[in-house]
Amino acid sequence: MKITLLLIGLTLLVIVLPLLPALQEWRRPSDVTPLPIDEADALEPDYMAQRFGQRLDDAVDRGLIEIGGVPLVHLPAEAVRAPWPLDEREVRSGRSRRIWHSDGDCRLPERLHGLAEMSCAGTMQAAAGHTYRALRARQALLLPERVRVLRWAHGRQVVVGDRGVLAGRISAEHSLLIGREVSFSLLHAPVIRFAGAVDAAHRPHPEGLPAALGRADGLRPGAPGQPARVEGALIVAALRHWDSDLDVDGHVTIGEGCHGQGRLRATGAVQVGAGAVLAGSLAAVGEIYIAAGAEVQGSVISESTIVLGAGCVIGLPGTHATVRAPRIEVGKGTVVHGTVWAGQRRIDIDTAPPGAAVIGYDTPVRWDHIARRGLATASLVLAPRSHHQGDLVCQGDLEIGARSRIQGSLKAHGDLAIGAGTHIDGTLVSPGEIVLGAGSHIAGSVMSEEAVVLGPGCVVGSPQQPATVCAPRIEVALGVVVHGTVWAGSSGDAPSPLLDTGGRDDEALDERTPLAPLPGQAAA
């Protein structure tokens, strides 16, 4: 009996011994491998739109009057301004269960909710406050405020107005422009801009940007070589841009992520939003508040007070800039390339470029200098303006100070916080919450098993390197730009046929149907 038990024990030992390293890795992971993403969603978020387009083009070429048993209405291009040929049931119920396609531009009728696919070969303008199953436009797709999309929407450029509800996949070939308080599930485009205030009644900017400042904003262009003037207050929405000097007779509010070329002078107070970049000097009679992560590439002068938010930058390397006011407040990680004067007193701020963080000597990090990879066995906080190269894994919470530079990927077993104005050339992975500070730039993907909060004016990915923001819950502030995909929880598409013909399913796709709270919220 004893021999039998001994043999069983030895057998179990032989089986379990090779698994010990795997069990140890499972309990205390030491890698920086990104979280897995389903291939169908990661690689083809616009699959539904592309598949429908193929079937529709084939039906139009063959002159069919239905697709998959659903009636098809084909409108010629010259009928863009003519009333739609609605039948009695559609007029009475305010809902259409037919597929509609126009060879030109298309303006969807008022008081008609689309419970089947709607398509056009040009620009499509939806109706405010209406519900649509699926929308497709070869050019621009304009969704005014309070539009609900149940399955998918696709266009070359897509503009989403305020308080939209995007329950399905929203994709664009060129750019996505998102308004305020928009709930979403899956967004995909080469560039996604959370502008905060967009006009979905007009064609979008060719680059997907909100329109440049102009006469509609109160600007009066000056003579050649003279600044433009604004009489009264100037309020600039997020991500707007301009290319001239500005003189403002009043207060100025500059939104998150704006880009301005030229100097700015104001007789009132000036507020510069997070992540904004002003390529010139800034002067005001009143208070100047520069939010976290913003940049002013010239001098900043106020007759009252200057507040420099965490991680903001004043001046350029090699170009002397002056920050001067009777009273000055400076946040963590602020960089000033020049001199700071508070009244008649000079304030010393380190303007040298950040040096390499000494990781592995005075911090609880085991650093492999050959593999350029570090492992922190406890929670870790890096000071503002830290700089190091290599991947870093933290077996607790990880906090990166403002205006730091990290060349590598970061993985935390707890929460992960990125300070304002920080640049990271890698991927962020955490089972806990990930918070990106204002004006931060992340070159790689951002993935969490809990939540991702994108601070105002931050940028994820680049035109050359698309990225993915993935978490069960995502919150996006004003002025955020994402190059790639924003995926909050599930994609919103149930595994169903391309075209549903069952009446019960169509009845469910009603504008009165309550939708479950979506896990993505933009510019709340």
UniProtKB/TrEMBL annotation:
Residues 502-513 have a biased composition (Basic and acidic residues). Residues 492-524 are annotated as: Disordered. It comes from the Bacteria. This is Polymer-forming cytoskeletal protein.
